[in-house]
Design a protein that fits this description.
A hairpin with a 3-residue loop joins strand 43 and strand 44. Helix content is about 5%, strand content about 45%. It is mostly beta strands and about 675 residues long. It contains three helices and 45 strands. It is flat, with a radius of gyration of 37 Å.
């Protein structure tokens, strides 16, 4: 081991391995993530004190042998060997790597602590020799050295060492059994190393942010005007720089979920071809990502990026107050940030208590790495980070403002849409004389940032359960039940088509048929369903959703129910309501009924139609369809029927006593 003044050290491990059976090589596992246990003693001073600390392994090499490096939990694994070559007998390996972040800083000293041999080797080791060279001469005593052997936690001293001003070297006295190790600790005076922390560049995979500044103006229309500047150092040529926006949980006073929505004004850089940039916003499970790419080539060296945009949905009304939640910094890729600062200004000025400002991480824990101050004269809150952000940390700001100061009438609909919204829907349900319903759906969709086939998936339900058995979020409609014993009911679904394209691109799941629209905008589909009508005396009843819950916002829509012939409005009863009980206005016409959604339909809601009309409006059921319906819902009864038939045949031919005619000659007396 070669200790360096910058706080890193280089390790060269030479292993002589005896393979007692054919193997392809070895795996060297090195722990890089450690739990920090509070034992009541003095704790090391760390830049990030989160219950764990990590070391970094860089420049890994195995000269002369093929190898692969992969992470697994708290370990970095080095798989050494050729998968096509087996090894028997003695084999020598040399493993090289550089370690950062393994020195421990205390108030009066710096400690080097390293497991020369870890306690997880599942084999014996005949002998261990080590040498550790210092970066410069230092006077250490034997009291500054701890050298232990044995299993984890043991303090055996079955090893010897020699110490001078330049190095320490030693060896074990005997053989190490499986799961026995050797650990070495040295105590150095404060100031001996130039640094005990790894430089920011070492933490970077593709780039690191040397400096970040954000200026946020809170506007009366409940929007944020944001300008951010990133000074970025690319450690390798990279195809994109990203700004992630984490979605902190946000609801308005009605309990409706709100999501930040960005309108990009400008993105530029001061490097070569500064204006030749392209950007794209996408939405993921936990937030949005703004991806900035060069139109040609790759990013390299140092570049300064400036982003200017408007944010809606970060300020939510809640009665007398308004809550602001905004993600001030998030690179989205776990890349490190050396320093971040912000200014938050209130346009026109509005009162708030700076002592009630909270800074939080994406996991909603307190973000203590912040120094801030408030200037009442300009209603400006400013702050900057105290330490680097090294492990993919992001931070946001929470504060409450005077709700009467804002005008929320300009909020765009996108702030209530998770991925898309249905601008309008039209459902037509045609009742045919044999009881079949031909159902047509037309949807006009708008996506928040762009079409994603994984987010917008209309569907047709194929299985229903009574409300007490429902596995869906919403209760199932009250349908007839032609299942003899099963709680699951399956109406006949057939003739499924999408628009003028013919058969749909569909995927069958257990409870539904998922449809796959080819793009945004208008999408229509239709199908026939038999088995939706319930009989109640001399009337038919129908309860069915005008539109299934699509998992996102519906801004408007209507439905119509068509009859085969003219109807008497006095004989027909119609009611339509949303899941929360809101009644829809309905109308009755000569041959159809209609209803219209008066406002938004929120995620998790649906419109349920309740209809009752005389049986005389339909000519009766189709026996062919009825028998198919019975078979579809009771096909499982064929299993005991077939089993009984098989057992009967088995008994008939092999199990019963055959009746044999006995022929006898009888002579009367």
């Amino acid at each position: 081991i070669q200790l360096n003044s910058d706080g890193s050290f280089e390790v060269v491990e030479k292993l002589t391995v005896d393979f007692t059976e054919a193997r392809r090589g070895i795996i060297r596992s090195i722990p890089v993530r450690y739990a920090v246990w509070n034992t009541g003693g003095e704790q090391a001073i760390r830049e990030h004190d989160q219950g764990v600390y990590e070391i970094l392994l860089r420049e890994i090499d195995v000269p002369g042998d093929p190898f692969q490096v992969f992470d697994e939990g708290d370990y970095v694994n080095i798989r050494i060997g050729d998968p096509d070559v087996t090894i028997e007998g003695r084999k020598e390996y040399e493993i090289r790597y550089r370690v950062w972040g393994a020195l421990n800083q205390f108030q009066d000293r710096v400690e080097f602590s390293w497991n020369l041999i870890g306690t997880e080797w599942a084999t014996s080791i005949d002998q261990v020799q080590f040498r550790l060279r210092f970066p410069k001469a230092v006077d250490l005593s034997r009291d500054d050295v701890i050298l232990y052997t044995g299993q984890r936690g043991a303090q055996e001293q079955q090893a010897t060492f020699d110490l001078d001003r330049q190095a320490i070297q030693g060896q074990t006295r005997g053989r190490l059994e499986a799961y026995e190790g050797v650990s070495l600790a040295l105590r150095f005076p404060n100031g001996y190393f130039d640094s005990v922390e790894a430089p920011t560049r070492v933490y970077a995979n593709r780039f690191f942010v040397a400096e970040h500044q954000a200026v946020v103006q809170v506007n009366r229309n409940a929007s944020l005007s944001v300008e951010e500047t990133y000074l970025v150092d690319f450690v390798q040529p990279t195809d994109a720089f990203t700004r992630a926006i984490f979605h902190f949980p946000q609801k308005d006073g009605r309990g409706l979920e709100m999501y930040p929505y960005l309108e990009i004004d400008a993105v530029w850089t001061d490097g070569p071809r500064g204006n030749e940039l392209q950007h794209q916003i996408t939405r993921g499970q936990s937030g949005d990502q703004l991806r900035i790419e060069p139109r040609q080539g790759l990013f390299s060296g140092r570049r300064r990026f400036t982003l200017r945009y408007t944010v809606w949905g970060a300020v939510a009304p809640d009665g007398e107050v308004a809550h602001l939640k905004w993600d001030l910094l998030d690179t989205g890729q776990g890349e490190p940030v050396e320093q971040s600062s912000f200014q938050l200004r209130l346009a026109g000025g509005t009162a708030f208590d700076p002592e009630k400002v909270a800074y939080v991480t994406g996991s909603l824990h307190e973000f203590s790495n912040m120094d801030h101050r408030f200037e009442p004269a300009t209603a400006t809150l400013s702050g900057k980070t105290i330490r680097r952000l090294l492990l993919g940390d992001n931070y946001g700001i929470f504060l409450s403002l005077d709700g009467h100061w804002f005008d929320f009438s300009s909020l765009p609909f996108e702030v209530y849409a998770r991925n898309f919204s249905v601008a309008d829907f039209r459902t037509d349900l045609y009742l045919e004389r044999n009881g079949t319903a031909r159902i047509q759906h037309r949807l006009q969709t708008d996506f928040v940032y762009g079409f994603s086939p994984n987010d917008f998936q209309p569907y047709v339900r194929t299985r229903y359960r009574p409300p007490l058995w429902s596995i869906e979020t919403l209760p199932d409609p009250a349908l007839p039940d032609w299942s003899l014993l099963s709680p699951v009911y399956r109406p006949l679904i057939f003739d499924l088509q999408c628009g003028d394209e013919g058969p749909c691109d569909a995927r069958h799941e257990r409870n539904r048929i998922l449809l796959a629209p080819s793009g945004p905008g208008a999408f229509s589909y239709e199908y026939r369903a038999y088995g939706l009508l319930r009989e109640n005396g001399d009337r038919y009843e129908l309860q069915f959703p005008a539109l299934y819950d699509l998992g996102d916002l519906v801004r408007g829509g209507s439905f119509r129910i068509h009859f085969p012939e003219a109807i008497d409005s006095a004989e027909v009863e119609l009611m339509a309501s949303t899941t929360d009980g809101t009644r829809l206005p309905t109308a009755k016409w000569a041959t159809y009924l209609s209803g219209e959604l008066p406002g938004y339909l929120l995620p998790g809601d649906q419109v349920m139609i309740d209809l009752s009309f005389p049986k005389s409006y339909l000519s009766g059921s189709s026996w062919g369809l009825f028998l198919q319906l019975l078979w579809k819902n009771n096909a499982w009864l064929a299993i005991p029927l077939l089993l009984g038939s098989f057992l009967y045949l088995l008994w008939y031919f092999f199990g019963r006593d055959p009746k044999v005619v006995l022929m006898t000659r009888y002579t009367p007396p």
